[in-house]
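Rotation project, supervised by the postdoc (A.L.). Task for the rotation student: set up a whole-complex structure prediction and record inputs and outputs verbatim in this book. Inputs entered:
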Amino acid sequence: DIKMTQSPSSMYASLGERVTITCKASQDINSYLSWFQQKPGKSPKTLIYRANRLVDGVPSRFSGSGSGQDYSLTISSLEYEDMGIYYCLQYDEFPLTFGAGTKLELK
Amino acid sequence: DVQLQESGPGLVKPSQTVSLTCTVTGISITTGNYRWSWIRQFPGNKLEWIGYIYYSGTITYNPSLTSRTTITRDTSKNQFFLEMNSLTAEDTATYYCARDGNYAWFVYWGQGTLVTVSA
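Outputs recorded:
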C-alpha cells in the first residue's frame, strides 16, 4: 500500500496568515492526489483533485501543488471558516489511502 | 441534488456481523460511470477506504478487508450495502458512504453512521 505522510499533524495559525500543509507519498503517485477539509461533526469535503485542480465552489484562496511524491495544500490568507482537519488522499493505486490529517486551529 | 444517507444498528457485539445501508436520492446508482464507496473513520480521525461498487455492479475492495467485507446493492431501492463480519473493537468507527464526482473521488458524502463494537 502507498503510505501518505502528512505534516504537520497539527498547527496554529492567525487570521490572514498563509498556511501550507504537505503530504509525501511513499512512491510516485503521478499527481493523483486530492485534498479534503473536515469540520467537527461533518463529513469531509473535497477541495482539490489531481493535485492542483480546485473543485467548483471552493474559494480561490485554496491551492494545491506538487508532483511525484511531494504535494502541498496552501491557504493564501486564512479565514475563520478554514479551521478544521485537512486530509490528503492518493488515488494512483488501490487501495486508496489517506494521510493521517492536519488539524488547523486558530492562534 | 445527489444525497446519500447511511443507516445501521449502531451497536454490535464482538464477533458479529454488521450490515449498513446507503440510501441514494437524486440519481440512480446504475447510471453515470460513478463509483459508490464505503469509507470509515476511526476514533482519532484516521480514514480508511473500504471499497466501492461501480455503476455497472463491479466491486473493488481494500485488500486488507476483503476477507470479511461484502458490498452489494438493490437497484430497485437505489441502495447499496456494506456487510462486515467477525467484528472486533478495532472496527468501531463512523462509516460513510460516498460517491465520486466527474473528476474527483468522494465528492458526495453521507452524514456517516457510528458503529460501536462492544459486548
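Student's summary: Chain A has no helices and eleven strands.
Supervisor addendum: Chain A has a mean pLDDT of 97.
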